[in-house]
Amino acid sequence: MDTAPGPAPDPHADRRPRGTRGRSPFVTGFLLSAGALLAYWFGGLILQAGSVLILIVVSLFIAFGLNPVVRWLVNRGIRRSYSVLIVALGFVAALALFVLAIAPVVADQIAALTDSAPGWFDQLQHNRQIQRWDDQYEIIEKARDYVTSGDLTQQLFGGVLGVGLAILAAVGNVFVVIVLTLYFLASLDRVKHGLYRLAPASRRAQVESLGDRILEGIGGYVSGAFVVALCAGMSTLIFLFIVGLGQYAVALAVVVALLDVIPMIGATLGAVVVSAIALATDVHIGIACIIFFVIYQQLENYLIYPRVMSKSVDIPGSMTVIAALIGASLLGVIGALLAIPTAAAILLLVREVFIAKQDTR
């Protein structure tokens, strides 16, 4: 009697997803549809909490930027709890002093800029081409009425109530960011080591090494961007006082420092704003501002920025541009700010994990 076993069953004969075999097509379709609806609902919740998630990410990045200072104090023999307290108090005090010292001056200078705007429109009328366009379309008259009537502010903020709500929301966001930053700074090591324990014990050392390098790079980038922006603001402040534009120097220097944080286009935007106001005030001062910003941006691009960022991010120039564009398209200015350290972290993982694994095959 022939007892030879029959052919082995083909394991690939049933290609339905595991967990749906043996069920009717109706049940399978229902489960897949329910899963898709659940994913869609969860994605909608994430989008609704997008503003809160952005505040959390910004707070994390600020905490990473302050962590090198905490580590420097720890290396000097100060306990980490005391180091965090010192850095936190210094951060809050510096922010408060900046607001108290700069806000009134900036407000006065912005008011002076607004009062001077009609005079600049009158100066523009002396240009023949602009005067020809104005005679035909009344461009300057419409622009003057638009700026001086307050319609611009109402459209930007939705009127007086909108301005109050916008200021209240901004103050609330700043408060939330400060609280979250202090919390993350105090618990950074504990959270970091807790996350490292999620990795398998056989690969935990490699995960800790990569994680520490990524966090160190992010912290170096954040603190470095602050230093570069501070250099741009201080240089602009000193230059504007020298050339005789001191009545607007503080406000314009703050604008340049804030815009300089934005990758790629921030420094150019700041230069355009300052040069335009300087040209409207005095042609010679405007030309001097253009020359100054052209020279300073070369110094920043080839001397200041490479020296400050040399130990924080290792990313090619083309990747910087691509990352900034993608980040700006997703999250606007904040996305552009966070894109470069994020791209550097991804590039580090690709080099140390994927490429290293491919080289061993």
Give the structure's gist in a few sentences:
By secondary structure, this protein is mostly helical.
Give the secondary structure arrangement, pairings included.
Elements: H1 25-48, H2 50-75, H3 80-124, H4 128-137, H5 139-148, H6 151-157, H7 159-186, H8 188-196, H9 204-243, H10 249-260, H11 266-281, H12 283-309, H13 317-359
Describe this structure in words.
The chain is mainly α. It is built from 13 helices and no strands. The radius of gyration is 28 Å and the shape is globular.
Can you count the beta strands?
0
Q: What is the H/E string? A: HHHHHHHHHHHHH
Basic shape = globular
**What is the average per-residue confidence, as pLDDT, rounded to a whole number?**
75
Query: Sheet with the most strands?
Result: none
- Low-confidence runs of at least 5 consecutive residues: none
Helix fraction by DSSP (H/I, runs of at least 4):
over 70%
Give the amount of beta strand, in percent.
under 5%
Distance between the termini: 50 Å
The assigned structural class equals mainly alpha
Rg, rounded, reads 28 Å
Please tally the helical runs, counting DSSP H or I stretches of 4 or more residues.
13
Could you name the key traits of this structure?
361 residues; single chain; globular; mainly alpha
